[in-house]
Amino acid sequence: MSLHIPKYWASASGSERSPHREDVALKCYGHSDSSVSEARARAAEVIERLRERVRAGAPWPDRYGYGDRPIREEILSELRGPAGALDGYVTRNGYGCSVLNSAGLLLADIDDQPRGLFDRLRGWFRTRPAPAANPMGLPASIIAFALAHPTWTLRVYRTRAGWRVLATHQVFDPTADTTITALEQLGSDPQYVQLTKVQHCFRARLTPKPWRCGIDRAPRKFPREDAALEQEHQQWLRSYATASAPFATCRFVVELGRGDRCADAERLVRVHDEATRAESSLPLA
Fold first, then answer.
1. 3-class DSSP assignment, residue 280
2. pLDDT tier for residue 167 given thresholds of 50, 70 and 90
3. How far is CA 224 from CA 91, 196, 229, 230, 232, in A?
């Protein structure tokens, strides 16, 4: 699989004076699969290159966009198949939720469409019942895609603010044009589609968003580079576990298609459904 999430990260910071006699603050991160010390050394190398650019008055490169570098998240677990091959990772994102990362299980994230005043008024005064052909209120994009791809197997979930679709009949290349087209046709959020392509990775949040559970997001992003920050994080984790216990992240609604199962995809579906409490009736957060 092409998915790669570095295990170790370290930061470096400093400042440099430009030819215009302006002090420029600098900060960057280095990563490594071997050690924190190697990550720290790489961060120092990047800082020095940035200092050279500032001293030379070179044009400043465009700021990194979200998704054009390795995912900087704490790895909570590696997911491996029976033969030991890596299926994916569970990581913790910047605001504290655990996230499923996979290079093979197609995950589509579809937001609810915002309703304008006209749509709301029409809903208030409608007297006819909703069409019986879609009693679960599935988005038209999901229904159309399922009809156009009868050999696929799609598991559809409701989230707090939209829908999630998992394709379980085969594994997919997240960078392939056909995959990107499928995500777009299912109605995925455009930013999610872009992230899937540039990060070589499908992602799905497994645990509730903290603010929906009544607490603030995690106070510190990874890496936490001293004992005090780590202690603060552990205290937050305990509060988060308590606050999120009464909630689910998504709810399984229906399976569409032929019903085929791919063993590699099915293992990740089980991880997803257990962590999200998808078979429960808990409120969504």
1. coil
2. very high
3. 15, 26, 6, 6, 10
